[in-house]
Design goal:
single chain, Beta-Lactamase, seven-stranded antiparallel β-sheet, 14 strands, about 725 residues, Catalytic domain of cyclic nucleotide phosphodiesterase 4b2b, alpha+beta
């Protein structure tokens, strides 16, 4: 530390004439005990106050760039103020870096607020204490309420004390730096141990990093956002974690959040790669106060640091609210955190590689399972269809009707009808017929022989798309039509007859690969695998841009068949229609309608004539029952009511498995609730199917007949449910 005032010859002579032993003895009394830089600065200021005879002294420290915070050992929280002219005397002194001796009774536009706690006239000396490179590190504010103005002699006394006091302050500064480096080194050692002594998952490592980071800078909460380069977004599954949560092991999983790079404080750091220390977030336009308003938590300060690998930002660590006496994060926190961030980046990169290896192992298991079950199209099957030639329209006149359903039709005939629908929609100018034959036969073979989600279901969903496209010509673009039709016929490839939740609960390798829309992601990847087989790429004649677009739309369409996505899609489309803002010119609106068309086609059995609807429902429930068989084959004993060997026992279903595992199945899968099927169908058609068709008919009026047929089926189910209710009440009375 040196004075901002240059040492002159007269000042040096003064220091020689001064009783240095007395000064050192007085300082030594204070420079014992805890070697804290701030505390020593305070004690030096008290020595000076006694030496120059003033009433009080205020100490202001520059803890973070551009801000002053008042310090006192008695304070637990320190208010901060920006370093600038036009506010307080201390802030103005820090701005200009010069000693000022003033009278607060005289107004001055450079410091209109004067000394906040002083009212009326007072004599004040503000003295900037600077580092060796000339940066202001503190401001000492000496106040005399009575007596003479501060003189040059007083200034020389302050110079002398600062010169001698700087020795102890610098020693304390070095000691604090060593302690901080030790803390950082301890953390880095723990990171290295976690990398090389145990293989941890990404989520586990993120928790470790946030826990250590909070301790390193004494923060109240922490967040770590990773960069998704494909979508240009930041995302996090674990965020706003406190030390208590990480240390207790009671960390609660949070729903994943995403936001664009460049948005907010974290987004700014991810975009620029710069460290950002914000002492007062409500003064920063980049801060979003909505979360504080929602949670009631008050954010004061934020320290945000980028994580780099090979020169690219891979994530952002954000510390929230400095604990203890400091209001904001300090420059020392920034330095420590930047060192820590280098190792964090390496740790996260290592964890990502481990996650990739683990996912590859799971994919390998799935691939072996799939390959052991499925086969590609045989030459005999291909030749038979090729010999029959391209299907003629006269053979398939009724297939475009909404009421069409291939009851009793053999599997290969459905392949031929699928070929007709494709050729009728898209022609053969850009598609090779033999490749189409191979593709559709292989698609058929890649559907498992489950009760409902089989090749027949895939065919009927594709037929529903075909009938919708034929009824509404010109609405969808050719690439969109191609994506929807192929997506529909592939949308349940390799379905095992189990829903997504069940696949997750039994620990299926598929669930380890795809945490959301598990089966739908698998169906899409199965379609890609078929396209990649030799002589199966039906899109080979498309341009690269068309190929990319059709695959992207296919994935969108197949994922849309996950009913979990239907409800947010329905809510969004309803809102758009209610606001009368729907437009076919907007890509997002078109994608939303495509998703709704896929859902409606997947549920097409609910809008078929009553005898077909009834027949389909019985097949669907049969698939639920089969899961009980799977449970027994896996080495678990089904509950007695689901044992196929028992007299009058028909089959086993998902509800039996869930009960045997100690779960509480929903009525849909509970054999004890079989008599409630009509009531459950009322809920299913009324809550999902009909709302879907109502929205579609509003956007595409030509689809109104589908809605009307669904309404008729719903009315019939209501009648049956009422009859079942009366029957049950009569039985209860008896």
């Amino acid at each position: 530390m040196v004075s901002s005032t240059r040492s002159t010859l007269s000042e040096w002579k003064f220091s020689l004439d001064k009783d240095k032993r007395g000064v050192l003895k007085e300082l030594t009394q204070y420079l014992t005990g805890d070697l804290n830089k701030e505390r020593l600065m305070w004690e030096v200021a008290q020595c000076i106050r006694n030496a120059i005879g003033c009433d009080l002294v205020n100490v202001y420290l520059v803890r973070s760039a551009g801000y002053l915070s008042q310090y006192s050992p008695e304070f637990t929280q320190f208010e901060i103020q920006p370093i600038q002219s036009g506010t307080t005397l201390a802030a103005h002194c820090a701005e200009i870096g010069k000693v000022l001796c003033v009278n607060t009774g005289i107004e001055n536009e450079d410091y209109p607020d004067g000394v906040p706690e002083i009212t009326g006239a007072a004599k004040v000396m503000v003295y900037p204490v600077c580092s060796e490179d000339g940066e202001v590190e503190a401001v000492l504010e000496f106040v005399r309420k009575k007596g003479n103005n501060f003189s040059d002699y007083d200034t020389e006394i302050v110079n002398s004390y600062i010169l001698w006091g700087a020795v102890g302050i610098q020693f304390a500064d070095k000691y604090s730096f060593v302690q901080t480096q030790k803390t950082v080194n301890d953390f880095l050692l723990s990171v290295v141990r976690s990398i090389f002594q145990e293989m941890v998952s990404m989520d586990t490592l993120i928790v470790q990093i946030m826990n250590q980071a909070q301790k390193l800078v004494n923060a109240d909460r922490a967040s770590l956002f990773l960069v998704d380069a494909k979508t240009n977004q930041l995302y996090a599954r674990i965020f706003d974690v406190s030390c208590e949560e990480t240390e207790s092991g009671e960390l609660q999983g949070n729903k994943e959040i995403r936001f664009p790079i460049g948005k907010g404080i974290a987004g700014f750091v991810a975009k620029t790669g710069e460290v950002l220390n914000v002492p007062n977030v409500y003064d920063d336009d980049r801060f979003n106060p909505a979360i504080d308003e929602e949670t009631g938590y008050i954010t004061r300060s934020i320290l945000c640091v980028p994580l780099f690998i090979r020169g690219s930002v891979i994530g952002v660590v954000q510390m929230i609210n400095k604990n203890g006496s400091d209001v904001c994060f300090t420059k020392e926190d920034e330095q420590s955190f930047e060192t820590f961030a280098v190792y964090c980046g390496l740790a996260l990169h290592h964890a990502k590689l481990y996650d990739k290896i683990r996912r590859s192992e799971q994919k390998y298991k799935v691939a072996l399972e799939v390959l052991s079950y499925h086969n590609a199209a045989s030459m005999d099957e291909v030749e038979i269809l090729l010999e029959e030639g391209v299907p003629e329209p006269t053979e398939h006149e009724d297939i475009a009707q909404f009421t069409f359903y291939a009851t009793g039709m053999d599997e290969m005939k459905k392949v031929r009808k699928a070929l007709f629908m494709f050729v009728d929609l898209f022609g053969l100018e850009r598609f090779e017929y033999e490749t189409l034959v191979r593709f559709f036969i292989t698609v058929k073979k890649n559907y498992r022989a489950v009760a409902y989600h089989n090749w027949s279901h895939g065919f009927h969903v594709a037929n529903s798309i075909y009938s919708i496209l034929k009824a509404s010509p010109g609405i969808f673009k050719p690439i969109e039509c191609l994506s929807m039709f192929i997506g529909a016929i592939c949308h349940d490839l390799d379905h095992r007859g189990f829903n997504n939740k069940f696949m997750i609960d039994i620990g299926s390798p598929l669930a380890a690969i795809y945490s959301t829309s598990t089966m739908e992601h698998h169906h899409f990847n199965m379609a890609i695998n078929i396209l990649q087989q030799e002589h199966h790429n039906i899109f080979s004649r498309l341009t690269p841009d068309e190929y990319k677009q059709v695959l992207g739309n296919m994935k969108h369409c197949i994922l849309a068949t996950d009913l979990a996505l239907f409800f947010p899609n329905k809510a969004r489309l309803s809102s758009i229609l209610n606001e009368n803002s729907f437009s076919w010119e907007l890509p997002d609106h078109r994608l939303l309608v495509e998703a709704m068309v896929m859902t409606g086609s997947d549920l097409c059995a609910s809008a078929k004539p009553w005898h077909l609807q009834l027949e389909t429902v019985s097949v669907i429930y049969e698939e639920f029952y089969i899961q009980g068989d799977f449970e027994r084959e896996s080495g678990r004993l089904p509950v007695p009511i689901m044992n196929r060997l028992h007299e009058n026992e028909q089959a086993f279903h998902q509800g039996a498995v869930e009960k045997n595992l100690g779960w509480n199945p929903i009525p849909l899968f509970d054999i004890d609730k079989k008599e409630d099927i009509p009531a459950m169908q009322v809920g299913f058609l009324g809550g999902i199917c009909l709302p879907c068709y109502e929205l579609l008919s509003e956007v595409i009026p030509a689809l109104t007949p589908i809605k009307e047929q669904c309404q008729q089926n719903l009315l019939t189910w209501k009648q049956q449910a009422q009859q079942q209710k009366i029957k049950k009440e009569s039985a209860d009375e008896e």
